[in-house]
Amino acid sequence: HVSSIKSVAAAPDGKLLLTAGEDKTIKLWDMDSGKEIRTFTTDCHFVTTPRAVAFHKDGRSAFAYCAGNNKQLVHRWDVATGRLMRTYDVATEEAALSPDGRYILGKDKDGSFGSKALVDIETGKVETEFPSCSSKHAAFSPNGKYFAVSLRANLVTYGVGAKNILWETEQLKNASPHKGEITALAFSPDSRHIATSGKDDTIKIWHAQTGAPIGTITENARRIHAVTYSTDGKYILSGGYSGIIYIYDAISGKLVREIAVGDIIESMTMTGNGKYIVAGGKDKVTGGAAHLYDFHSGKLLRDFQGDDKRVLLCAFTGNGLYAVWADNHGSLSVLDMKTGHYRFHSLGKYFYPRDMVISTDDTHVFIGDSVNNVVQQWNIGDGKKIRDIQCPGGDFKSMAVSPDGRYLLTCSTSILTLRDAGTGEKIKEYDGRFDDTGKGTYSKVLFSRDGDRIIATGTYRKKNHFGTFDVKSGKLLQSREIEALDGYIDLTPDGKNIISGNKLTYNHPYALKVYDSVTLSEIRKISRTGEQFKTGTLAISPDNARVATNGPGFSIVLWDLAAGKEVKRLRGHLSHINNLAFSADGRFLLSGSSDNTVRLWNLRNGGSVAYLNRGEKWAMFTDDGYFDGSDDAGEMINLAKGRYVYAIDQFAVRYNRPDIIYDRIEYAGREVSGHYYHRYLKRLNRSGINESDISADLQAPHVIITRSTIRGKQAFLSCSFRDTLYDLQAFNVYVNDVPLYGAQGRRLEGRQALREFTVELSHGMNKIEVTCFNKKGVESPRALTTAVYNGDVRGDLYFLGFGVSEYKDSALNLKYADKDTKDLADVFSHMKSGYRNVFIKTHLNAEVTVENVRKAKDFLKNAKVDDTFVLFIAGHGVHDTDREATYYYLTHNADKNRLKETCAPFELIEGLLQGIGPRNKLFLMDTCESGEIDDAVQEKYYAAAGSRGLRARTARALTIAPRSGEKRQVRRYLFQKNRYIYNDLMRRFGAIVFSSSKGGEFSYESDHIQNGYFTREIINALTSRKADKNNDGKVST
């Protein structure tokens, strides 16, 4: 939720949680994991805000009361599917359900707000009517005999069977009702008492049958928003503005204890047979959150919260190369449409984007901030900020770039400023007026297509206005008063018309208006069909044929501009649509939403992919589960089916398919998707899984550690493996993320298996995880146990190094790669004081062959679990031109045109780290991937390095020739090695890896230091005290 949670409800079995937020969303959560399962939606979400939620007694359906714009509705959804089952018209601000699950409290037959009725939830028919019952809060007693409602300070209780009022506080003698509005009410579990809280800072307890006052609590009763009873009825709980749950003795009213939540508490419920409390409200950081607490200890057990990020602005560059968007967290995101590469840049913690425009040459983006009233200018290609441009004149509102690209027009509340787009310098200010008698305020500006006029919207004398001004003189050319407009306008690409949306009210009959851009005369209206909604944002297609607007139920509506009709709806977002943009060729639509995502839509087939980010972490996903992103994308998204939610990592073998996403949405190109498809096939091969065996079922196996016994340095484990639908394939055991049974694990047969095994413990804490895969490639949740061994252990150190400076092809020669290997070996050889033994082995120059790499594993045949292994390689590294883009370490006799036959594939290097004794493994790589850099960029790198006395650890001769008849293409997508698709799902070797450069970068060496710079820094870290931050004489990774 991006704003306060107003209501929470736990399912009868305690496994699910419902939350309702002021962001107009209702969410379903898994109670055990805290993960979101789904968001419930309706086409009324732009009209109403959810105020209260409840589960049916069988837990199969969920209810939410929603109000707004003179509507009061209760929606009912199927919990397992998210399907909207029914909508009820009601007149209470609580989703009040009878305990037997048969009735909901609603309006009478004629819809009068002056009476109530019990409505059958299956048929929607009114069963029983009650007079004089307009209310604010409502609840049924647990025994089903009464229901209570509140209206301002009056509490009214009805007998369900008697069909009349039992009592009301305003009519009772000596009742001492609340002196302010009742803010919450709750029945005791035995139905004997009712607790109410009020704005008079009191909690009152009433006898449910007679209305007799039982007691009043005043201690810490200020600004209460939520009241409930404990499951056993012994305690009354309250929460509110203080952010503290107060627990009172229900008989004496004395404060028993407090639980500090920190957030403003809006709603509470008990679950787990009274063991737990769920409190929901306004989180100071994320907007809305719910929290699970142990009732007796007050310990926080789990949070239910997402991210309050809202994507506010989005745009395409005119050349179609990039999609750009900005959010309320001050993040600027750039998506390369040709390679799928995603980049993140920080605009500043307190930067709130208000408007964004792209320069006409597509090289820069201008982003305006309404908090600091500044415009930032960024280079889109290299992601560097160019400058800040201060915008005086009140709050920053809008800006525009002139069609010739020379000028930037910025709009603040009271000033329009024309600037040089290249430097940001002010050229002139306009004393813009919407008539000759007084100055107005501005909200939106545009340039006419010829660049001679400024089109502005704003207010003058509390009326909304259009105005056009001459750019050179600033003279007002045309002005007219308009209705219901709040700055959401755009100019058609042909420059002839202005399209405006209706933002301020729901019930205007039109969705869009069309104006003449010169005369400002209204040409026509485009009316809504059916549901009410605000057209708060819009975009116009490049061919002037279509307009995209936000629509009901968080949808996007595509309109035929000529016909004035809706032609299509796009659904996928789960919250408000804030901004829309067409690509220059009209193929794609970009939409920014308050659901934390931007979506890229293929308008040919209606498919979409959603992007979200949290700082450097990012993910993209489709509605049917395919995903990719940064290597930690699995932390951001989950898979849900029915009432259950799964970590997406478990199903990554099937669903981590960027190739499918790119092919479906038709961007990034066939070469890119083809590469990722071969990465997928390679992963299957390494995992021992056939593609034909993969299933779409969200069916995961399970592992239970049934016994764990520690005896000295050994842990004895017994495990149960089970899958209810598919045969098991293999299991593996990981100790501190290092696999015991290699990449493939040990085989399992059938759908159930028991295994016993022994784990040798390392010194210190041992995190032991057991996992298994079924035949469909789905991984189980990992069963976890820990063991500590503090015995006296002193391991050995193994250093294995490969360094090539002298190649058979002398054009590839380097100067210090072999020396780097010798120097590092010397450093490690002097570490005997920290280890029992130190073993060193190096292969230099002509000794670095594929065969020697393959045999090098024999060096480690006697190594043990407490030993440490360091692997180092220095020299050239390069990708082949095959579809897999296989990465090779160039051995001494490398032939750049016969890489497969003469060089060591990276998998062979990785293999040295697999299936060996040591669990402490460090892999150091002083190589680069220079073969994937543009020739022109390479020359710049060489020149820059030479001017500083540096030498790039590469060679011009290293460029790999394309296959016959093909043109050499730089594969920039290979620079994205931190993507999830490259993750080792089987966690194959558990080593820590440090590399000297990323894709598209050089590694450097120098005569001054007589080493590679990466190697020199490693040596400095190991031989000086700079890296020993805690001064314990050890350097750890």
Summarize the structure in short.
This protein has 1037 residues and is mainly beta. The chain has 9 helices and 78 strands.
Distance between the amino and carboxyl termini: 37 Å
Query: Class by helix and strand content?
Result: mainly beta
Strand order of the largest sheet: 52-53-54-55-56-57
DSSP helix count? 9
- Total count of strands: 78
Strand content: 35-45%
Low-confidence stretches: 108-114, 930-942, 960-965
The Cα radius of gyration reads 34 Å
So what's the CATH class of the domain at 797-1023? Alpha Beta
**Anisotropy-based shape:** globular
The average pLDDT score comes to: 85
Q: Name the quaternary structure.
A: single chain
CATH topology of the domain at 797-1023: Rossmann fold
The amount of helix comes to: under 10%
Largest sheet: 6 strands, antiparallel
In CATH, the architecture of the domain at 797-1023 is 3-Layer(aba) Sandwich
Question: What does the model show?
Answer:
With 1037 residues, this protein is mainly beta. A six-stranded antiparallel sheet has the order 52-53-54-55-56-57. α4 links the parallel β68 and β69. α2 packs antiparallel against α3 (670-687) and α4 (817-829) runs parallel beside α9. The longest helix has 18 residues, at 670-687. It is globular.
